[in-house]
Amino acid sequence: MAAMHRYHRPRDATTAQEQAMLQRLKTLAASLRTAFGRGASRGLGAVPTAARSLRRTLPPLLMLTAVTATGYALATHPPLQAVPPGQAALRTNQFSGGTNEFRTGSFLRIPGLHEVRLFPLRDQSYHPAAIAKADGPAPLQSVEGLSLGLDMNLRWTVDVTRLAELSRRLPDDIEADVIAPAVQAVVYKQIAMHTVREIFSSQRAEIAAALEAELRARLAGDGIVLRGVQIGSVDLPPDYRRGMDRLLADSLASDRMRYTLEISEKQVKQTELQAAADKVRRETAAEAAGREQIIAARAQEEAMKHVLPFKQKQIEQRALEAQADSAARIKQAEGAAQARRIEIAAESEARQKLADAEAYRVTQIGKASAGQMAAEGALLTRHPLLVQKAMADKLSDKVQVIIAPPGSGGFIGNALLAGMAPTEGAKSERE
């Protein structure tokens, strides 16, 4: 709308400038007529001179006037006009009535011939400030007759398929001349049908939907597409606001108490249902356990029919195994005793044979010793010096030189034997 206003205000100024330019041209034409009249009144003698002067002055003057007027018209009214972003331009021919639409770029506009009007293509926002406050210039009235304010915001745009028609029908200021009256007519009527409590809390969404539906239908006839209606805060008188707050607090407390009671009742029902469910579950579990025990007893009974013969066979088998084990142990004991008797007899026979062998050995040794001693005695009898030699041989590791007494003619060991006699006698006594 701002773009439309920017265009239509210069249009009035342009009309004034055109009128001023036309007035100047009329003044120039009047001056020329006056000049021609004065030249004619001077007489025929002055005609050639005036004609020559006019022929010299008039063409440059007319040319200068035409160039000046053309330059001024081009400077004040350029023939090319650009389309602002987000808008559409409708160019209407004043003589033929034809309309051309432009949305981008620039187009030719001839002053006095073409009339151009701009329409927004983007969504516009309208906020009626007169009805926003309860103490504002135009407050709303509820069904109780109370004044209240309503914060509203409308999003709208023009119907782009009807721009040619709308350029001739719609006024310059669409919000002030079309949307504002429609909003006042619809909002005042809808608000007057409801109470303050319904507007403030309980039916705000329904009221907004009704306002939007009626406004959409009303503005559609004027070529306005309503995108949406948003209702913000509701401004109430201070006294009623305080009473409404208390009433709402009491209502909320009552609702909270009702909800609390409902929750308590539901909790009681839930507890009853849970108890009933637990009872059914326990009964079902007990029945299932009883059936399981019955089935287990029957299964055990059926199993015992097969187990008892099997146990009897096991007992018989173990008795037979015990008898076989006893017989085997008796056989083993008898075998061990027989083996022991055989071992004892063999050991006795072996010891007897060892004793016989030892007796035979002793007998043979005695016989050999007796024969040897007999041989040695016979030898000593024949050779007595052998005793001395044997004695010397035995004493050879202790006595290096043995001196025999001269002329004794006897045994060289007699002196030694005489000296050892008491010792041997004492030895015999000790033994």
Please give a structural write-up.
- It is built from nine helices and nine strands.
- β2 and β3 form a beta hairpin.
- α1 packs antiparallel against α2 (47-76).
- The relative contact order is 0.04.
- By secondary structure, the chain is of the alpha+beta class.
- Among the domains are: 2-118, no CATH class; 123-236, Band 7 domain (Tetrahydropterin Synthase, Chain A).
- Helix content is 68%, strand content 12%.
- Mean pLDDT is 76; it is low at 1-14, 43-47 and 423-431.
- The strands form three sheets. Strands 6, 7, 8 and 9 form a four-stranded antiparallel β-sheet that branches. Strands 3-2-5 form a three-stranded antiparallel β-sheet. The chain has a two-stranded antiparallel ribbon with strand order 1-4.
- The chain starts with a helix and ends with a helix.
Low-confidence stretches: 1-14, 43-47, 423-431
Output the helix-strand order.
HHEEEEEEEEHHHHEHHH
Largest sheet: 4 strands, antiparallel
* Cα shape: elongated
Terminal Cα span = 165 Å
- Determine Rg (CA atoms, Å): 79 Å
Helix content: 55-70%
| Count of helical regions | 9
- Beta-strand proportion: 5-15%
The total beta strand count reads 9
Query: What structural class should be given to the helix and strand makeup?
Result: alpha+beta
Look at the structure and give the mean pLDDT: 76
